[in-house]
Every structure is written in structure tokens, then in C-alpha cells.
Amino acid sequence: MVILMINNYVVIDKEGKVKFTLHDIIGKSIAILGIRGSGKTNTAAVLAEEILKNKLPVLIVDPDSEYWSLREKYDVLIIGKSRHADIKLDKLDKLYVIGEYSLKNNLSVIVDISEYRTSEILKGLYSLFDKIWSLSFNIRRPYFIVLEEAHEFIPQFKNTELKEVLSRIALRGRKRGLSIILISQRSAKVDKDVLTQSEILFLHKVIHPADLKVYSEILPLKYSDVLSLISKLSVGQCIVYRDGLINIVKVRLRETFHPGFTPPPSELKRTKRMEVIYKELIKLLKSAEPTKSPDTSKHLEEKIRKLIRENEELKRKLIEKDEEINKLKAKIDELRNELKRFNIKIAYPLNQDEKPYLHSLLEQFEKAYLNNRRGFKRVKEYLKILAKVYPSGITSKELAILAGKSVSSIYNSNLKDLIELGIIEKRRIGRKVYLVLNDKNLRKYVNMVA
Q1: Domain ranges in the chain?
Q2: Within a 10 A sphere around the Cβ of 293, how many other Cβ atoms?
Q3: Torsions phi, psi for 110 (to 5 deg)
């Protein structure tokens, strides 16, 4: 696969089956995925070369010193601690100065982070991209960001300040002219919201089941078909997926030498233009403040706004809960009013003067049955309620409410046994089923036990 500029087109293969215009890639999110050694870094370098050919600025985050050779053919400034760096920074706390200068002056930059600690990298890159994002609102011009090892900076299950600003660039950068090229050997570890929003994907070979699953979620194919396609990819080959179209191509080798495989030239000298830029940036870096005030205060303001939004959301949910509680209270009142027709109070005992026949039977039944059973006190309460409404009945729901229990707990008690013995009967009247005390079966049981 050869990438050439023909009539303002980026042609992906010799046959011209897959090609892009510059406008096809400006402001887009592009993903290059694949295992180590599959050719993904070469693909990223090829894209970077094509962008640089067209005099468009590229900012490359380089964790392994694999891109510095681009200076062989293009004006690129290298920042870092390595021996190839044009400007050596002991700390990354002024990296935002480089980002501002790069965006304002169309300067291509490689940020070599291979010699820095992780905590320092995260803070430095946050200040860099936060500055680029804020400036891009007014400076709306094509600007490409190449992010190697994207899974470390936009992880799937972790939220950081850096991930927040990079996600914003990936998802909303188009309107500001910002493009991002994400490169990762572990696609399953890259945030899915960002990855699935990529308009152009270069899918190299992967082996891990989790990464294969990501490919199957991206491509409109059966899992078995995806597995078959990926297994046949050789080094440098990839699936190009864009606008629902799938093409298998072989990426050309980068035109600048590969630092990992090709012996580097003795020295790559800076051009006169780059010497002028170098001196300007050195002055700016000396006078600049370390990353604290503007970016930190802005981030704190954003955090406050976020907390205010969350507070408003919680208030809204609280109002909804209060409304739900009021509805439930109204339903309880409605049920209580319905039960008033029985003129029953739970604490009101069965007087001996009222229905003495039933009173005597219940006392005998208690001695014969209830005292030898677990839960007899609860059943005794149910029987008293049923005796109060005798010879009428009461529904299970109404009995549960009067007894202060749930319907399921009623039937989990010994009440079920009494229904089986026929002491309590179920009678259907219309659509409702009523529980009714059967005094005849109650007496029969008492006499039998006696």
C-alpha cells in the first residue's frame, strides 16, 4: 500500500480503492490499533508524513522515541530529555508554552516523554492539551495530534483530568479543526466512548480475545468473519474501516528511516527556520510560569460547575422521590378509608359479650392448637380479626394491612395450615377472594382434639 498525494488526495493503495482528501481527515478522530510488531507505528508515521507534506502542523506524543527521524525530511521540533531533543526540559511543567506556540505558529512538535515519570507526564500533557483546547476556540485551523499508547492516557475504567480533555478533543474537536490519531496495542483498554466515535480506523492484527471482541463490535460482521479476516493479516496489513466500508490494504514503509530498525544518520541538523523558532521558544520558556495558575484555576472553576450541575441533579431526584412518597401515602390513606367499612381496630379485643360462642371456641382452639405451634400469636391475631367480621370475610390484602404485615408473610405463617384444615375458607365473590372463618370446622377440630 502506497500513500501518495495526487490532486489533493491521500491515496491509500496503488489501485486507488481507498483514498482520502485532506478534508476527509481534518477534524476527524482516527484510530490505529494492533499488537506490537503488527505495523501500527509505521502506519501512524506514514499518516504523519502525509500531513507534514501538506504543511499542516502535527503534535506527536512519543513514549518510545520512535518518531524523531521525521526531522530527516520535515521541520519538526523535538522536546524532551533524549539526545535527539532540540529543547531539553528537565520538567514538563511548562509544556503548555510549547502547545501554545505550536498552535499559533503552525509548528510541528514531537514531545518525547520516554525519560519522564508517569505522574509528571500526566500533569504535563494535561497542561499541554488543555491549553490547545482553550486556544482552539479562537484559532480555528487544522491541527493534528498523534497519541501513541492511547490506552495509558484515555483508559476505559479510570477518569483523570488528562482523559477528560483528550476525550473532549476526540469527540468535539472537529468544529475547532482539531484531529486526533489514537494508536494502541490494547484496544480493549481504550475508552469505548472515544474509540467508537472514531470516523476512520486502521485495524492491524490482534490476538487477545478482548481486543478481538472490540473489533467485532466495530465492524459490521459476524464474530467468526472478523476472526477469519484478522487471522490472515500479515505485518503491515490492516483493515481500513470508514463510512461502513471495509478494505484490506498493506501500508507502505515510512519514507523517513525507522529509528528501531534503520541505522540513524550521524546527525540531523536543524534548518535555519527551526533555529529561529528554537531561540524564540527558549526565551518564552525562561519567562513562563510553571503549570499552576491559569490552567489549574480554570480546571477548578470547571470542577465547581460540575459539582453545581450534580447538586441540581440530586435536588431534582429528591423532588421526584418526595412526589413518589406522597403518592404512596395517598394510596395508604385510600386503603385505610376502604377498610373503615369493617369498623375494625387491631387493638380492639373480642369482648365476651359479643359473639360469646366464637369467643369460647377461639379460647379452646388456642389451647388445643396454637400453644404448640410457632407463630401462634400472629395466627391468633388473624383469627380475632376474622372473628370481628364474622360471618362476612376479608381479603388477604385487607387482613395484611390491619395486622401490619405483608400478604406474603401472612401465608408463610400457620394461617396456611388453617386454610388446609378448613377452619379458614377462601370464598370468591365477584373478582375478589375473601378469607372467612368457618365456625363449624373450628368446633369440629376442637372436639376432635379434645
Answers
A1: 4-291, 292-341, 356-449
A2: 9
A3: -110, 120
> Which pTM was predicted?
0.63
43 CB-contact burial (10 Å; exposed 0-12 / middle 13-18 / buried 19+): buried
* Phi-psi sector, 355: left (phi>0), alpha (psi -120 to 50), beta: left
Q: What letter would DSSP give residue 242? A: E
Rounded Cα–Cα distance for residues 241 and 31 (Å): 10
Query: Could you tell me which CATH number the domain at 356-449 has?
Result: 1.10.10.10
Q: Nearest Cα to 165, choosing from 27, 309, 295?
A: 295
The Cα–Cα gap between 254 and 146 comes to: 16
Which amino acid is it at 319?
I
Q: Which fold is adopted by the domain 4-291?
A: Rossmann fold (3.40.50)
Q: Secondary structure of 283-308 in the HEC alphabet? A: HHHHHCCCCCHHHHHHHHHHHHHHHH
Phi-psi region of 16 (alpha: psi -120 to 50; beta: other; left: phi over 0): left
Burial zone of 155 (CB within 10 Å; 0-12 exposed, 13-18 middle, 19+ buried) = middle
Tens-digit pLDDT string for the chain (450 aa): 444 444 466 766 666 677 788 888 898 999 999 999 898 999 999 999 989 988 899 999 999 989 988 988 998 999 998 888 888 888 888 899 999 999 999 999 999 998 889 888 999 999 999 999 999 989 888 999 999 999 999 998 888 889 999 999 999 989 899 999 999 999 999 998 888 889 999 999 999 999 999 999 999 999 999 999 999 999 988 999 988 889 898 888 888 887 766 656 656 777 778 888 888 888 888 888 787 544 455 666 777 888 888 888 888 888 888 888 988 888 887 777 666 555 544 434 444 455 777 878 888 887 777 655 655 667 778 888 888 888 888 888 888 887 777 887 777 767 788 888 888 898 888 888 889 988 888 888 888 876
Are 417 and 365 within 8 A, CB to CB?
no
- Return d(Cα 373, Cα 149) in angstroms, integer: 70
Under 8 Å between Cβ of 170 and 29: yes
Q: All 3 cell numbers of residue 202?
A: 486502521
Phi (first) and psi of residue 76, to 5 degrees: -130, 130
